[in-house]
């Protein structure tokens, strides 16, 4: 069994996956595509082994490289369709909604005028998110119409991607959310992401603290169903505790777990290697 | 062993380092990305966050 891992930076996660492969006596071929080139007429199977784990932190590199590898007949985790869908909040929301997953009320518009009308219906405060982006970057809490107008005006001068206005109700939740890790058909670990810095966002990249979260049947059922709506693979499903129960607001495709492993004691890198072996068979 | 580009302190590159790995200066904390030049590993300032980086 030969597994390859494509990556652009070796963070705690990539290092721990390398160590897990060593522990399990699995041959792990490391491929950093950053300074390489790919001749599209060449066969790539011999270099990449039975299965490839996609770990590039750059979303567009991650997505396009996966397209290339899959077109050459390679099996990649996660697959192109899952990365494409999970990496775009609108596409992800559409899939989740069609699968009947409870979500915060969401609206989309394509102009400042449309956004102001949508926000009027949603009510303030509301959230505006870029359709592509992570770690809470450029996510805005909009408290009134003046702020909305100012943010929209700024966005009109950015790239066209920022003229897709993804707007969401501000869910009345405790100052935390839940990140649940789904590998294959199982929820393997979950954390509360508790805001400790006064930031309303609960991304650990923004300083939120990871605290072990018990995996209830309700949480597992919801998160596995949400992950399955995106595809088969390895996902981080983000939920909020709304007054009406759990709602899913995001599914992530290239999971980060350096805060989760110490908080939960779950060997996520080991489980990733086990999953890859199982899928490659 | 390489020198920190900020404070000139010595940074030890681990024996099992991998291209793309992030190392930090023990004195000033500056983060560097390890890259390969010929048979040797060198360092360059690590990119902190790209516009499309994330999960």
What does this structure look like?
The complex is a heterodimer of chains A (281) and B (55). Chain A has 281 residues and is of the alpha+beta class. Chain A folds into three domains: 84 residues, Rossmann fold, CATH 3.40.50; 64 residues, Dna Ligase, domain 1 (2-Layer Sandwich); 95 residues, 2-Layer Sandwich (D-amino Acid Aminotransferase, Chain A, domain 1), CATH 3.30.470. Helices cover 36% and strands 25% of the residues of chain A. In chain A, strands 11-10-9-12-13 form a five-stranded antiparallel beta sheet. In chain A, helix 1 links the parallel strand 1 and strand 2. In chain A, helix 6 runs antiparallel to helix 7. The longest helix of chain A has 14 residues. The termini of chain A are close together. In chain A, 43% of the residues are buried. The mean pLDDT of chain A is 95. Chain B is an all-beta fold and 55 residues long. Chain B has a single domain, classed as Rubrerythrin, domain 2, CATH 2.20.28. Helix content of chain B is 0%, strand content 36%. Chain B has no helices and five strands. In chain B, the strands form two sheets. Chain B has a three-stranded antiparallel beta sheet, with no helix packed on it. A two-stranded antiparallel ribbon of chain B has the order 1-2. The termini of chain B are far apart.
């Amino acid at each position: 069994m030969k597994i390859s891992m494509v990556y652009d930076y070796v963070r705690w996660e990539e290092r721990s996956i390398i160590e897990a492969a060593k522990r399990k006596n699995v041959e792990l071929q490391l491929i950093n595509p950053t300074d390489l080139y790919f001749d599209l007429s060449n066969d790539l199977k011999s270099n990449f082994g039975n299965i490839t784990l996609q770990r590039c932190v750059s979303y567009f590199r991650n997505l396009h490289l996966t397209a290339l590898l899959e077109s050459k007949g390679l099996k990649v985790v996660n697959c192109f369709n899952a990365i494409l869908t999970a990496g775009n909040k609108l596409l992800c929301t559409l899939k989740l909604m069609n699968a009947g997953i409870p979500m915060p009320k969401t609206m989309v518009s394509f102009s400042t005028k449309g956004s102001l009308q949508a926000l009027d219906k949603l009510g303030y405060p509301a959230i505006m998110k870029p359709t592509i982006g992570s770690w809470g970057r450029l996510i805005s809490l909009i408290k009134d119409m003046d702020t909305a107008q100012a943010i929209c005006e700024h966005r009109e001068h950015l790239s066209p991607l920022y003229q897709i206005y993804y707007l969401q109700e501000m869910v009345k939740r405790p100052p935390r959310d839940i990140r649940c890790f789904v590998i294959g058909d199982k929820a393997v670990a979950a954390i509360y992401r508790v805001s400790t810095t006064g930031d309303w966002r609960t991304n650990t990249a923004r300083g939120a603290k990871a605290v072990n979260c018990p995996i209830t049947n309700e949480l597992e059922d919801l998160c596995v169903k949400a992950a399955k709506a995106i595809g088969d693979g390895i996902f981080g499903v983000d939920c909020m505790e709304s007054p009406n129960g759990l709602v899913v607001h995001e599914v992530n495709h290239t999971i980060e777990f350096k805060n989760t492993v110490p908080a939960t004691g779950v060997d996520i890198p080991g489980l990733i290697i086990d999953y890859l072996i199982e899928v490659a068979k | 062993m390489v020198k920190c580009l900020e404070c000139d302190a010595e940074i030890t590159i681990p024996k099992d380092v991998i291209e793309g790995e992030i190392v930090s200066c023990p004195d000033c904390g500056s983060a560097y990305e390890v890259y390969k030049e010929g048979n040797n590993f060198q360092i360059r300032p690590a990119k902190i966050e790209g516009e499309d980086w994330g999960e």
